[in-house]
Specification:
mainly beta; 24 strands; eleven-stranded antiparallel beta sheet
Amino acid sequence: MNPWLRVGPLVLVLLAVGGVSSSAQQPFEKARDWKPLFRGIDLVDLQAEQPRLMRGHAVRIDLTTKGLRFFATPSNGERPDHTDGLKTSTFLTRYKCQLAINASPFSPIHKEEGQPQKIEGLTISEGKVVSPERLAYPALLITKDNRVAIRRPPFQLEDIHTAVSGFGIVLEKGQVIKGGKDVHPRTAAGISQDGKTLYFLVIDGRQPKYSEGATTSEVGEWLAALGAFDGINLDGGGTTTLVIEKAGGFHVVNRPIHGGQPGTERVAASHLGVFAPPLEK
């Protein structure tokens, strides 16, 4: 029996000029229903065989959950650039998050952790600007009381407590934004129309016979199918990583591919972590 269960048809939405049509069916299959990880946070594993083999994982976050809060990579202070690079798993364990993803684009790539790196676009950690906005980079903006928005610069930063940047918006007011044909591993985030649910999505790539990767339009389609109304494409490629806390340590949920090596994490300058209460017993 195939462990991947196909979900039902996706209602067609009329899209404005500049968007692309959603297909008549969901763009992925899911292994099982959403699995609770922490209070207000659920995980689901996803797969598609068309238009190519893709494996992904999505996290659904209930923003009304009491005790839920977000944390972006903090500044490295007086050291060069903006932050000191960490693997996503190191970020999670160092700051004791329950969940973490890679976030803003950055440069350069280092093999070792702890080296200064420059973030491309706005990053805010605990109300402090770590890296300034850049015109070409939209951002995921989060207030202290967990109101979330995806915006293009220039930004209104009053009340913004946490922010990370992305390469582009892939879903806007329910419309999938048409993008290029490049296929890569992807990390993305989306917000529901009512503002109560935040989605994280990772799609693995560059791994024939396992997962080849996605276009940005496909990322928008997957976010829309999950329930998002707006979505942003964060840093991807060999940096794409989703990590969760597990038994006092960590578990890398997806299969990163830094340096062409499946299962190898990349040292990154920017991460977005989530603190969440444990599940009720």
